[in-house]
Amino acid sequence: MNTTEHAQQTRLLTPAELAVCIKMFREMRQWSQEQLAAISGLNVRTIQRVEQGLSASLDTRRALARAFEFEDIDALNKPFSIPSEEEFKAEKEKFDREHVTLTATPLTTGKQLAKLAESCTMDLSEPAFELTREADETFAMLVDYFRDYRDCADAYSETQKFEIYDEMQSHIDALKALGVSLRSATRKVQVKWGLEQDSKPMPASVLYVVAFPLGKEPEQFATPKSAGIRL
User: For the purposes of burial, counting CB atoms within 10 Å of the CB of 115, is it exposed (0-12), middle (13-18) or buried (19 or more)?
Assistant: First the structure.
């Protein structure tokens, strides 16, 4: 039996093999155990047990499959093709080519967000986990508000801006009361306007505002290098 044939064999993952896969999938996305727990709906202790090679229930494996966006949520409960070390490396390199890792800076004040909005020409703002309806609406209101401010910030005097800071702060505080913490990052990009292939790319600054579970915020997060960005 050659190596290729061996790599093509499929079987159920052992708990130890599942541990290696889950840790690899998590680290490829630059997620902490706390972030994976929040996204999957599991608790951190369960994630730790899985990554220690202890047994995982059918529902736990399903939750992890959903978190990693498997098309089949029962994929981890079925015979699995075990990738080789070379395949692991190739997948990691592919992920690194397609994503950029950003430092997640705590976003705690309205003034901080207003200044970020002033300095960036576009944004990509979204929750990193499933929010409650109330939290989802509050986050949406905050995003709408700072986008409106960004578009007309030059029209405000320095004194008038304090009202903006207070309004943004009220939304940030409301999110915190609902168990939601905000992290921000900025990134320089080159943007092409229009559909012409020979159009010259223009420099732009992108603001990322991401919602995480309070107390489970990562130090970094990964985002696609190419993505839809709100002007």
Answer: middle
